[in-house]
Amino acid sequence: METRHSPLGARASGRVPHARRAWAPVARLVGAALLLAGLASLAAALPDAAAANEAIVIRVSGAISPASADFITRGLTRAAHQEAALVVIELDTPGGLDTSMRQIIKAILASPVPVAAFVAPSGARAASAGTYIVYAAHIAAMAPGTNLGAATPIEIGGGGRTPGSGDATEKASEPRASDTQSTEARKRIGDASAYIRSLAQMRGRNPAWAERAVREAVSLPANEALEQHVIDLMASDTAELLRKLDGRRVETAAGARQLATAHAPIVTLEPDWRTRALAVITDPNVALILLTIGVYGLFFEFANPGFVLPGVAGAISLLLGLFALQLLPISYTGLALIFLGLAFLVAEAFLPTFGSLGFGGIVAFAAGAVMLIDTDVPGYGIPWPVIAALATTGLVLVLFVSRFAMQARLRPVVTGAQALIGSTGEIIDQGLQAQEDAAPEMTGWARVQGERWRVRCAQPLAPGCRVRVTARSGLTLTVAPLDPPCPAHSPEQAPSANERRTS
């Protein structure tokens, strides 16, 4: 029989083309996917020709907050990336946080795309922080029936009446004596006045009225604002605004730009999930609730290891609450009082203070919650019902945990040396033998909790008698007969100690 052997190299060379043919479709698919991904990245990096003519509208309704600041700054970044023709910020705000307002103004001043601040629709207002944003924009416009002004910084705790407040006819050059006005308030008003005056001078608008809006809290309707050169134009809606702005020349951070907005498509940016989530968690009420849930969740997890879910939920809530608070103007004294109050409430569950720590915790928590937000801007205070609800919930939780902790303390010990104390057993030897010392105790053996123990008792007991353990000394238990006591041994079974000494 003939046997043929093929060289190893020949066998391998015969299989390589087949392997290559098998992998060829996969390689082509991978190459096509990489090519498409590269083209998509290149297309995303290049500005869209159609988007270059767009007018991007960003609507802000409500208080100027960290969420609205993030929304506007990201919208301006997108407009700059797409080289949009114009960004229109529609404002309807009672004011807001100083930090968020300055973040928005910085983004507007640095924007290469022209920005128009439009107080709309009719009935809207741009009060306080909104007035600063209107002055910072390249173009200021208002719809009929709107107003702006009242840009006085709000003092902590309400402050006093600022000089000239409530008197729109008083001149800025004739301020009242600020006898009752604190130095801190004067510093705030001076800083705000210089800030809005610099914005007015930069945009060529009325700086005198801008300073009055800060120092005297005056306001203007749309038509008077146009007459006093506080704004540039009036328009009933965004479409009319774009038509009126067509051909206007403005100065941006990237240089002069001539607007071509008559036929620009209008694209309205809607808040995404990030903006909505940020708006929710930066609400002071929600931030305080998250902080409270976080502390209680971690407390429950540390007190009862192994549940996992309370610890995870508590850690997430605590981090979200702290993240929200670092975006808000908070008082660290108030935050410290909140943590102190929560610590007292938690300690009440473990220490027998008869409510002293619990009461102190509620007082500290309530005081800290009142002091937490360091501003009187509308919409940023924590109402008393929320504080009372959180304090009551904490008290109920502490009482609930204290009840179980007290029950655990009163429950008999089931492990260790002390577990035998109070247990019952049965005498198993023929009789307790009297000790050879002066102590009137009898010794013997008994079965307690299924184990054989050496026991001693102050009186003789017969086998089968039920006894209770009263003490333990090493490997010897001290027992006492259960009620009713067992009958004593007969003299034949258990001679007394006197008989033993006589014999």
UniProtKB/TrEMBL annotation:
GO biological process, one term: proteolysis
GO molecular function: peptidase activity
Annotated PROSITE patterns: STAS
Subcellular location: Membrane
Pfam family name, one: NfeD1b_N
Basic and acidic residues bias (residue ranges): 168-177
SUPFAM superfamilies reported for this sequence: ClpP/crotonase, NfeD domain-like
UniProt keyword terms in alphabetical order: Hydrolase, Membrane, Protease, Transmembrane, Transmembrane helix
Domain spans labelled STAS: 45-100
PANTHER family per UniProt: INNER MEMBRANE PROTEIN YBBJ, NODULATION COMPETITIVENESS PROTEIN NFED
Protein name: Membrane-bound serine protease (ClpP class)
Protein's organism: Trinickia caryophylli
